[in-house]
Design a protein that fits this description.
The protein has about 100 residues and is mostly helical. It is built from five helices and no strands. The termini are far apart.
């Protein structure tokens, strides 16, 4: 059910701005990777455990954020741009992140 709700939400997103969503999408992916790596080092994780933590930390912005922004009318168009751009950027970034943690 959640996948169906996610797909439906993606079809309804309307992107009106690309300026700050691009910067924040990049920050989300790179920052999440860096924070995940730092936490893995702090916990002494290696191998698969480190890889899972780092990759999970570097995932794109979830559609759930758009749902909350739309529900509370807090710039949902900008958040939609952030969701879309972080997802598009992750197509290129996640293979590089995977290569790094292997």
């Amino acid at each position: 059910m959640m996948l169906l709700a996610l797909g439906y939400s993606l079809t309804k997103l309307k992107v009106t701005s690309f300026a700050w969503p691009l910067a924040f999408a990049t920050l989300r992916l790179v920052g999440g990777f860096a924070i995940g790596w730092a936490v893995a080092l702090a916990l002494g994780l290696t191998g698969v455990e480190r890889g899972v933590l780092v990759i999970e930390s570097a995932m794109p912005v979830a559609v759930y954020n758009y749902m909350f922004a739309a529900r509370y009318n807090n710039r949902p168009e900008d958040v939609a741009g952030l969701v879309v751009l972080s997802t598009v950027l992750s197509v290129g970034a996640l293979p590089a992140f995977l290569w790094t943690v292997l």
